Amino acid sequence: MTVYWNKSRRMWMYGFVLLGERYQGYCIDPETGPARSRRRAREIEEDIRSAERKKRSGGVIVAGAFTIAEACAAHLSTAESPSYRKRLTECIAELVAYFGADTAVTSITGPKILAYRTWCAEQTVKVWVGGPGKDRPRDAARFWKDTGKPRSTRTCNRYLDALSGALGKAHTMRDENQKRYLEDVPNVPRFHEPKRKPTPLRDVDLDAIEGAARPWIVDGLELARLFGLRHTTEIVAVTVDMVDDDVRGLRLPPEITKSSDEQIVMAGASGWALLTRLRDQALARGTCHLVTWPGVAGMHKLRRGEPVEKWFPLKSFRKGFNGARKRAGLDTGRRRWVHDVRARFITEVSSSTKSAEVVQGAARHADYKTTQLYIELAQEEMRAAIEAADARRPERAANTTVNVSGAKALTEVTNAPKRPRVVRDGKT
User: Fold this and answer.
1) Cα atoms in the Cβ-side hemisphere of radius 13 Å centred on 322
2) What are the start-end ranges of the E strands in 298-370?
3) What is the mean pLDDT of residues 75-83?
4) Is 270 exposed, middle or buried (0-12, 13-18, 19+ CB in 10 A)?
5) Of the candidates 34, 39, 45, which has an alpha carbon nearest to the alpha carbon of residue 10?
6) How many helices and strands (H and E) does the chain possess?
7) 16 or 294: which carries more pLDDT confidence?
8) For residues 91 and 85, what is the distance between their CA atoms, to the nearest angstrom?
């Protein structure tokens, strides 16, 4: 639904395109007056859209009257997580620009989908260089730098999933005559996305990175090591009010979790000591976030030994981790990722219990197949540890020689000719 709040008029407005004509106005109900909420504005906008569609088609909904822009707007309205809604908005903007806002969903058939799939894979990655506020269009070369690198298969699949979701939403919606806007949903083939095996970060690598990292990056790494927090949304977003004294851990709200559900993360002795220290540190700094940094000006004060008055929450944890990894000399060979710290946490839990449900609960995985990757990895580590323990006992070689010679003697006795049976009086 395309409704927005007009700050100057302090009223909800609608704006949509139907069969090549644009409609715009205030969300006002003839009986109750102006809409007081976004939900009511969407309902009024849908009533106006249905009435105009019925008027344009002579009382009957014509085939193809439902456009790709309407399908994308309906699909976007189902996004609950703010982070997912932000990514989906970017994908929908490209879909509408490629197919055209007035294109009917019934005309998006297999050949057009395959053509978009090929075009999507040929697009290059653009990096924002225009400063704060990424509100400029991506075709502005002044604000977006073209890296020349093609999109990854994961990024392409995100756009293809958005197209599939919009077409699927059009299939579930019906008109006033209870007819589907899209009878059959065309297949949107995805690209094969190779899955990367989880690789736990070794102790020596973690110590080297933490030794070269800033203090706030070290705090984030410890949160990932002891709680398995995700760096993209959880480490930078965890606040003081999420520390729960009753469960002695973290109570993560739905706004920052990947599953959009409230989750509880238990803490051990070391984890609870870290949480209490970070909470006291945040309160002393006058902030609500557990992981904060002093800003560029504050870093200069820290180098001069001066006190820092204001601390800010981190916007990106990956950038600080990559810088520490380079300073630690670990930028060659196998690349270390921030997720490797979370993989270390899950692998340690897998090695300490035989219950797959416990591991899945600690990892907070919605799919058990993802947890199985870490369990399999933990079994390989246990097998390597057993083989390493056997290698520390060289005296086993001598025992093996004795056993082989004993087995040879036993074989000779076993293969010796047997005595013939003697039969007396019909008895052996």
Assistant:
1) 5
2) 312-313
3) 80
4) exposed
5) 34
6) 14, 12
7) 294
8) 10
